[in-house]
């Protein structure tokens, strides 16, 4: 395989410049630690202060307004390049594993449900602590995750990223979104198996991929270390979403589908929806009124829980009561169940129409919802970015067009992937009609959130 494209040559360049990449990673680690730790040590700015008036506000803008939406967008565009080249947590975990115990990763750690569980727990916990607004919750959640990543790196394997492969709360989400990306490391199996024309130098694939058999960008961190290996691996373009169109039943994973439906679409959707829900507000007012009137369980209205359990900033008039916390939990759980099960039911109906043994087909079709799930995640994170920009006095008249356009793009892309995936099957049109309510229903919920319809 000749490196006959610019991209392939860039892959070889990355392989040859791992030292510089490592230096860049240390720089990102330094910026990350400053933005994470310093604001948590400083007093909170007053409620009316501009975001640009304090390190707190600047860190908040960089982390939640720029960094996270930027990372999600980068995974959709470039695959997990972020993980391989810039992620401070992955880098620190691999660094810790260089000088660690090097033990074999135990079976419990390889449980495939961790990405779903970790994503749901961190998302919900973040909402209870108002992680987008305050620095101490950010330090606790992001910093805690980094410390855990280093501890796992220190304990297990040598020069690897066990944390990223099995435990990172966003690794499963990134793995899903990377399947859509137009960039991947393509492996020519025949060239790999052929006798090498020159000495083969062993490489270290930190996320433990069997490169010879790699046929998905899902787990690849796009670090470039294997570019040109045995003249069989090169960085290459592909049609966006091609991996999902050609997905085979044995390439689907039940836990990954559960993460997509009940985590990315359901839990993340509920987490973005609750703060603007009039239903939740009415439920809270009704319940609080009932408790006061009947003098029952008045402790539920107490808002003195510590900040690491529930949002507690009385000086800014922003504290959650136990009732607030319970209702937020209930709302997110119900939204996750409703959105996930809505999609699951329509996918099942479409799959049953196509074949008797329908479960594998249902999983294949579920992956077609990835564009809508990814773009709604981006939309949800951008709500914070836009509210920050509005707080700086920017008009943002184009905001609705951008958000509506992204939502429509996610919906159409999800429909197109399913149509392409079903090519050649009998009853294709009817199956698409049964599949379509899944993405359309999710898009309508988001339309309501974005435009108050
Ligand atoms: S397969 Fe492994 S070594 Fe190759 S680019 Fe992906 S993460 Fe890096």
TrEMBL record:
The record's GO molecular-function terms, alphabetically, read: 4 iron, 4 sulfur cluster binding; metal ion binding
What is an example of a Pfam family matching this protein? Answer: Fer4_5
Q: Does the keyword Transit peptide apply?
A: no
What are the TM regions of this chain, as residue ranges? 21-42, 62-87, 108-126, 138-157, 257-274, 328-354, 366-389, 401-420, 432-451
Q: Which GO terms describe its cellular component?
A: plasma membrane
Q: In its keyword annotation, does this UniProt entry include ATP-binding?
A: no
Q: Per UniProt, which keywords does this protein have? A: 4Fe-4S, Electron transport, Iron, Iron-sulfur, Membrane, Metal-binding, Transmembrane, Transmembrane helix, Transport
All residue ranges annotated as the 4Fe-4S ferredoxin-type domain in the record: 62-103, 149-180
InterPro entries in the cross-refs: 4Fe4S_Fe-S-bd, Electron_Trans/Redox
Write the protein's name: 4Fe-4S binding domain-containing protein
Identify the species of origin: Chitinimonas taiwanensis DSM 18899
